[in-house]
Amino acid sequence: MRADFAEVFEEKTKEIFSLEANRERVAELTYSNFIKSFGCSQSILSAFQQVLGFQDDFWFKAVGTLQGKGCLD
Questions:
Q1: Count of other CB atoms within 10 angstroms of residue 46
Q2: Among 2, 17, 37, 40, which is least packed, fewest CB within 10 Å?
Q3: What pLDDT sits at residue 63?
Q4: 69 with 41: CB under 8 angstroms?
Q5: How close are the terminal C-alpha atoms of the chain, in Å?
Q6: What is the predicted pLDDT for the residue at 69?
Q7: Which helix (H) or strand (E) is 37 found in, with range?
Q8: CB 44 within 8 A of CB 67
Q9: What region does 53 belong to: left with phi over 0, alpha with psi -120 to 50, or beta?
């Protein structure tokens, strides 16, 4: 089942990001999220999730540990 998800995810991602407008939307959302004080990694992940049409708070919280050099401690 995991392989199926990975396959579908890859296919859907290629389809969505083949459009310039979607790539620009990710950039705009990333910047907007960062200004709202999300960390770098959370800003990028949140933007991708919004454009791809899925939300997963687990991963959003998990990548939060990467901000502020948290991964180096």
A1: 22
A2: 2
A3: 82
A4: no
A5: 35
A6: 54
A7: none
A8: no
A9: left
The CA distance from 17 to 57, in Å, is 22
DSSP 43-63: HHHHHHHHHHT---HHHHHHH
Domain ranges of the chain: 2-72
Copy the structure tokens of residue 6.
């990975």
Instruction: Give the pLDDT band of residue 68 (cuts 50, 70, 90).
Output: low
Query: What is the DSSP code (8-state) at residue 73?
Result: -
Provide, for the chain, the percentages of residues in helix, strand and coil under a 3-state DSSP scheme, each rounded to the nearest 5.
Answer: 85, 0, 15
Q: What tens digit of pLDDT does each residue of 27-67 get?
A: 999 999 889 877 888 888 889 888 888 877 888 788 877 77
User: Which token pair is 32?
Assistant: 């907007």
As a residue count, the chain comes to 73
